[in-house]
Hints:
alpha+beta, Arc Repressor Mutant, subunit A, 14% strand
Amino acid sequence: MPPANTLGGFEQIVLLVILRAGENWYRVTIGADITACTDREPSPGALYTTLDRLEEKGLVRSRLGDPTPQRGGRAKRFFTVKPGDVQALTRAQRAYQRLLSGLEPLGGVRA
């Protein structure tokens, strides 16, 4: 099993979306941004599992909003990246850059 501070590709995507979003995004808006930016539509279960895992790793935090009648009295769960806790994402991105370094252009685009 990888160490708790390592990040998979989908975890990185979710973290980047949350960083872009600010504080008022929840599972539906996070999923919509992932789809818009990657042409990949994550299932609600996969997204919730990833969000829970990121929270367990201490990389994001969540808070419950107020219950709304539109949601049958249920509250939305909003996510934010914990301040200063982007080091794991930075390490993962740097590792990708090192791996891409020296490769011939991929699809005609230099990495």
